[in-house]
């Protein structure tokens, strides 16, 4: 029963979509198990076509894999249908999509509340995308969420929406002085979505169980990343779900014993979008260089990403937390041309050196990185396909990351394309 989990080892945007796309032709199912359309995966195909995916699993570009949106995802049906239409127009077969009936819906009041609350918080804002993700998960936990399956029963859908808006409209109107949501207009809009989504809605848990019983390979694709996990990330500057490996079981409905491999993806440096602590963040020319050369702008929002050196404390934490078996290091080519390439090997907090993630939010906010300097390289590495093709200093840099994370680095990305990789150990047999 081979189930493989693919997660991000930093704050997201590590290149998980590229890795999923690489593996897609060799797996039978690709399952998205967390997040919503606040995440974005960019995939570049061998013929140079670029796809920006948000709700659709990256395996959508695989010619054979069944693609699944699991119960742990929050779905904005308008966004999903737009993405389906966009892919179909470009010749991508979307008939293989299946959506869990237990996935929760993002409603108009979720988006409205997300935006107005962020504005209200001012300088204390979290830095959300404003797409309603947090409020949708909040309603899910409060047991007043509306699920995909409710679209199939107009009576139930109306009852649940009326109950939700009884409270949400009071908050929007009386607290934030915003226009209340119209029940009938919302129902009309969403029941139109229901007719188009109906063929895709399925009981995905049993479908995946049957696939695992047959010995099919199931790839579980996380959105966001470890340091944005609700429980294990830099709370409160996190997402509203669990993108770590443990969340894959909950968000897809498969047993932990089915997981045979956990692949983590990390950039050769570090980036983060939104607010929150970031010990290795650079505010100098080096940070600007990483942003420019690495094209560090959000796939979903277009926001500039904050950039910094590789943080081995964060990466090691992610490897231990997720039980990582294989590490993929992407964007090594972005570091080409730098005289020195530092790695953060620990923090100084209150005059003391620490090598692990601090326990408290306060300590992490005040952590000063301790760097280990590594000589850079000037050779173009984008054509490298074996480890021997890499400059000696680049090989030493990767070897040091492997040592610090105590996890083997199996693949090194040397460019954005699907084939632009150095494979040290195959991810699949």
TrEMBL record:
<dbReference type="GO" id="GO:0044208">
    <property type="term" value="P:'de novo' AMP biosynthetic process"/>
</dbReference>
<keyword id="KW-0963">Cytoplasm</keyword>
<feature type="binding site" description="in other chain">
    <location>
        <position position="224"/>
    </location>
    <ligand>
        <name>IMP</name>
    </ligand>
</feature>
<dbReference type="InterPro" id="IPR027417">
    <property type="entry name" value="P-loop_NTPase"/>
</dbReference>
<keyword id="KW-0436">Ligase</keyword>
<keyword id="KW-0460">Magnesium</keyword>
<feature type="binding site">
    <location>
        <position position="305"/>
    </location>
    <ligand>
        <name>GTP</name>
    </ligand>
</feature>
<feature type="binding site">
    <location>
        <begin position="12"/>
        <end position="18"/>
    </location>
    <ligand>
        <name>GTP</name>
    </ligand>
</feature>
<protein>
    <recommendedName>
        <fullName>Adenylosuccinate synthetase</fullName>
        <ecNumber>6.3.4.4</ecNumber>
    </recommendedName>
</protein>
<comment type="function">
    <text>Plays an important role in the de novo pathway of purine nucleotide biosynthesis. Catalyzes the first committed step in the biosynthesis of AMP from IMP.</text>
</comment>
<feature type="binding site">
    <location>
        <begin position="413"/>
        <end position="415"/>
    </location>
    <ligand>
        <name>GTP</name>
    </ligand>
</feature>
<feature type="active site" description="Proton donor">
    <location>
        <position position="41"/>
    </location>
</feature>
<comment type="subunit">
    <text>Homodimer.</text>
</comment>
<feature type="binding site">
    <location>
        <begin position="331"/>
        <end position="333"/>
    </location>
    <ligand>
        <name>GTP</name>
    </ligand>
</feature>
<feature type="binding site">
    <location>
        <position position="143"/>
    </location>
    <ligand>
        <name>IMP</name>
    </ligand>
</feature>
<dbReference type="Pfam" id="PF00709">
    <property type="entry name" value="Adenylsucc_synt"/>
</dbReference>
<dbReference type="GO" id="GO:0000287">
    <property type="term" value="F:magnesium ion binding"/>
</dbReference>
<dbReference type="InterPro" id="IPR033128">
    <property type="entry name" value="Adenylosuccin_syn_Lys_AS"/>
</dbReference>
<dbReference type="GO" id="GO:0046040">
    <property type="term" value="P:IMP metabolic process"/>
</dbReference>
<dbReference type="InterPro" id="IPR018220">
    <property type="entry name" value="Adenylosuccin_syn_GTP-bd"/>
</dbReference>
<dbReference type="InterPro" id="IPR001114">
    <property type="entry name" value="Adenylosuccinate_synthetase"/>
</dbReference>
<feature type="binding site" description="in other chain">
    <location>
        <begin position="13"/>
        <end position="16"/>
    </location>
    <ligand>
        <name>IMP</name>
    </ligand>
</feature>
<dbReference type="GO" id="GO:0005737">
    <property type="term" value="C:cytoplasm"/>
</dbReference>
<dbReference type="GO" id="GO:0005525">
    <property type="term" value="F:GTP binding"/>
</dbReference>
<feature type="binding site">
    <location>
        <begin position="40"/>
        <end position="42"/>
    </location>
    <ligand>
        <name>GTP</name>
    </ligand>
</feature>
<feature type="active site" description="Proton acceptor">
    <location>
        <position position="13"/>
    </location>
</feature>
<comment type="similarity">
    <text>Belongs to the adenylosuccinate synthetase family.</text>
</comment>
<feature type="binding site" description="in other chain">
    <location>
        <position position="129"/>
    </location>
    <ligand>
        <name>IMP</name>
    </ligand>
</feature>
<dbReference type="InterPro" id="IPR042111">
    <property type="entry name" value="Adenylosuccinate_synth_dom3"/>
</dbReference>
<keyword id="KW-0479">Metal-binding</keyword>
<comment type="pathway">
    <text>Purine metabolism; AMP biosynthesis via de novo pathway; AMP from IMP: step 1/2.</text>
</comment>
<dbReference type="InterPro" id="IPR042110">
    <property type="entry name" value="Adenylosuccinate_synth_dom2"/>
</dbReference>
<feature type="binding site" description="in other chain">
    <location>
        <position position="303"/>
    </location>
    <ligand>
        <name>IMP</name>
    </ligand>
</feature>
<keyword id="KW-0658">Purine biosynthesis</keyword>
<keyword id="KW-0547">Nucleotide-binding</keyword>
<dbReference type="InterPro" id="IPR042109">
    <property type="entry name" value="Adenylosuccinate_synth_dom1"/>
</dbReference>
<feature type="active site">
    <location>
        <position position="140"/>
    </location>
</feature>
<feature type="binding site">
    <location>
        <begin position="299"/>
        <end position="305"/>
    </location>
    <ligand>
        <name>substrate</name>
    </ligand>
</feature>
<feature type="binding site">
    <location>
        <position position="13"/>
    </location>
    <ligand>
        <name>Mg(2+)</name>
    </ligand>
</feature>
<keyword id="KW-0342">GTP-binding</keyword>
<feature type="binding site">
    <location>
        <position position="40"/>
    </location>
    <ligand>
        <name>Mg(2+)</name>
    </ligand>
</feature>
<dbReference type="GO" id="GO:0004019">
    <property type="term" value="F:adenylosuccinate synthase activity"/>
</dbReference>
């Amino acid at each position: 029963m081979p189930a493989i989990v693919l997660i991000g080892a930093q704050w997201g945007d590590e290149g998980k979509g590229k890795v999923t796309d690489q593996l897609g032709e060799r797996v039978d199912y690709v399952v998205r198990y967390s997040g919503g359309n606040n995440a974005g995966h960019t995939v570049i195909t061998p013929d140079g076509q670029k796809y920006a995916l948000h709700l659709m699993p990256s395996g959508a570009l695989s010619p054979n894999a069944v693609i699944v949106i699991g119960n742990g995802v929050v779905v904005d049906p308008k966004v999903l249908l737009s993405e389906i239409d966009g892919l179909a127009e470009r010749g991508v077969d979307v008939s293989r999509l299946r959506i869990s009936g237990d996935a929760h819906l993002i409603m108009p009041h979720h988006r409205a509340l997300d935006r107005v609350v962020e504005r209200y918080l001012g300088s204390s804002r979290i830095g959300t995308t404003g797409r309603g993700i947090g409020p949708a998960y909040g309603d899910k936990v409060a047991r007043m969420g509306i699920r995909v399956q409710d679209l199939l029963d107009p009576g139930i859908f109306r009852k649940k929406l009326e109950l939700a808006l009884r409270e949400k409209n009071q908050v929007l109107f009386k607290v934030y002085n915003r226009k209340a949501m119209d029940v009938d207009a919302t129902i009309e809009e969403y029941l139109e979505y229901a007719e188009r989504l109906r063929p895709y809605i399925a009981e995905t848990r049993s479908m995946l169980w049957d696939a695992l019983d047959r010995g099919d390979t199931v790839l579980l694709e996380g959105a966001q990343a470890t340091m944005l996990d609700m429980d294990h990330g830099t709370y409160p500057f996190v997402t509203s779900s669990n993108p770590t490996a443990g969340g894959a079981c909950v968000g897809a409905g498969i047993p932990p014993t089915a997981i045979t491999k956990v692949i983590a993806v990390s950039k050769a440096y570090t980036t983060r979008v939104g607010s929150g602590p970031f010990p290795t963040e650079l505010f100098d020319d080096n940070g600007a260089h990483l942003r420019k050369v690495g094209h560090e702008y959000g796939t979903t929002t277009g926001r500039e990403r904050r950039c910094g050196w590789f943080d081995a404390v964060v990466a090691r934490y992610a490897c231990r937390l997720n039980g990582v078996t294989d590490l993929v290091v992407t964007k090594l080519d972005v570091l080409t041309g730098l005289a020195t390439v530092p790695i953060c090997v620990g923090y100084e907090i209150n005059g003391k050196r620490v090598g692990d993630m601090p326990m408290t939010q306060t300590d992490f906010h005040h952590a000063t990185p301790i760097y280990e300097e590594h000589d850079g390289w000037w050779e173009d590495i984008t054509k490298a396909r074996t480890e021997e093709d890499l400059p000696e200093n680049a090989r030493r840099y990767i070897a040091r990351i492997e040592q610090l994370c105590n996890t083997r680095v199996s693949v090194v990305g040397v460019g954005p394309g699907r084939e632009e990789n150095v494979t040290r150990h195959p991810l699949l047999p």
